[in-house]
Amino acid sequence: MKVTVVGAGAVGASCAEYIAMKNFCSEVVLVDIKEGFAEGKAMDLMQTASLNGFDTKITGTTGDYSKTAGSHVAVITSGIPRKPGMTREELIGINAGIVKEVTQNLVKNSPEVIIIVVSNPMDTMAYLVHKTSGLPKHKIIGMGGALDSARFKYRLAEALESPISDVDGMVIAAHSDTGMLPLLSKATRNGVPVTEFLDEEQQKYVIEETKVGGATLTKLLGTSAWYAPGAAVSVMVQAIACDQKKMIPCSLMLEGEYGQNDICLGVPAIIGANGVEKIVNVTLTADEQLKFAEAANAVREVNGDLKF
Ligand SMILES: NC(=O)c1ccc[n+]([C@@H]2O[C@H](COP(=O)([O-])OP(=O)(O)OC[C@H]3O[C@@H](n4cnc5c(N)ncnc54)[C@H](O)[C@@H]3O)[C@@H](O)[C@H]2O)c1
Ligand SMILES: O=C(O)C[C@H](O)C(=O)O
User: Fold this and answer.
1) Where is the signal peptide (predicted)?
2) Which of 72, 130, 138, 175 is catalytic?
3) Residue 118 and residue 49: Cα distance in Å, rounded?
4) Whose CA is closest to 182, among 257, 198, 271?
5) What is the number of the ligand closest to the CA of 143?
């Protein structure tokens, strides 16, 4: 299994590192536009191989996409991250052009590739890849829900004063500060609804902190997060590489599912060797349905700024 990661910055390098450490891929190719940067990151990571015990071969290239030929999966992390006080949506002006160009280069060299979109604003960038790549829809997957769900579980465990391994939960809808929908109604501690343990104030705190998870880290770090994003991507790549048929919330092109059309939004899906094997329809409460529709309206407005 050959994986390309475009963008050897914070998220791209973290993603390559987690993929290598889990030792399920034969090859990871890092691509960046900055001269020598991807080569340097690849060499540094390869010098951890004997220390960390992996056999994945990591190489880097400055923009030579012939080196990515025959990739099974490609991850797009190229583009700028937000700074404190910014929204993800403000990145569209620069990142749309980058994502479009990168997509064309990837598909030209790997026509069968499955693309995982990470660059922000992610739901809109995933939509852009659908509109410009010519790939079938099951081969384009936006990464947001896997990360947001991990942050939801972190906040749930904090409120429950429990180990994270006791907790399960999922975030769907948009990967944005306002459009995320943590499904509290379905979150559990060892199968017991968390609503049995948390009062209303605690529930509200968990939901709000989850939604602004990325903004909180951006304020602390001065740029956006990379460890959990990289780990979330590695889980998705492994689900494809190992045909795990794992249920992961991902930003996918909807054609009637959840009452939406012609939009990429976070929904639970089965991820396996073919990319998206199936979108899973879960029953939402009336309030969740309303919030999902509101998130869709907001993403649709951002999509309106795209030029194809
Ligand atoms: N979807 C998510 O959950 C999620 C999580 C974290 C970050 N992000 C997004 O991922 C993106 C990357 O974040 P980061 O922290 O790694 O940023 P970064 O600045 O550390 O890295 C981005 C890299 O992309 C490279 N790049 C720019 N244009 C390129 C091009 N045309 N071809 C190849 N490489 C190019 C840059 O040189 C840089 O090394 C941002 O848009 C950020 O908002 C999304
Ligand atoms: O918050 C950001 O801008 C980066 C990313 O989308 C995240 O959620 O960490």
Assistant:
1) none
2) 175
3) 25
4) 198
5) 1
- CA-nearest residue for atom 8, ligand 2, is 214
What does pTM read for this prediction? 0.98
Spell out the per-residue pLDDT of the chain, length 308, in tens: 999 999 999 999 999 999 999 999 999 999 999 999 999 999 999 999 999 999 999 999 999 999 999 999 999 999 999 999 999 999 999 999 999 999 999 999 999 999 999 999 999 999 999 999 999 999 999 999 999 999 999 999 999 999 999 999 999 999 999 999 999 999 999 999 999 999 999 999 999 999 999 999 999 999 999 999 999 999 999 999 999 999 999 999 999 999 999 999 999 999 999 999 999 999 999 999 999 999 999 999 999 999 87
Give the distance (Å) from ligand 1 centre to CA of residue 300: 23
Active site residue 130: no
Residue identifier of the C-alpha nearest atom 43 of ligand 1: 81
Residue 222: left if φ>0, alpha if ψ -120 to 50, beta else—which one? Answer: left
DSSP track, 287-306? HHHHHHHHHHHHHHHHHTT-
Q: Is 281 helix (H, G, I), strand (E, B) or coil?
A: coil
Distance CA 194, CA 168 (A): 9
Residue 211, beta-bridge partner list: none
Measure 8 CA to ligand 1 centroid, in angstroms: 8
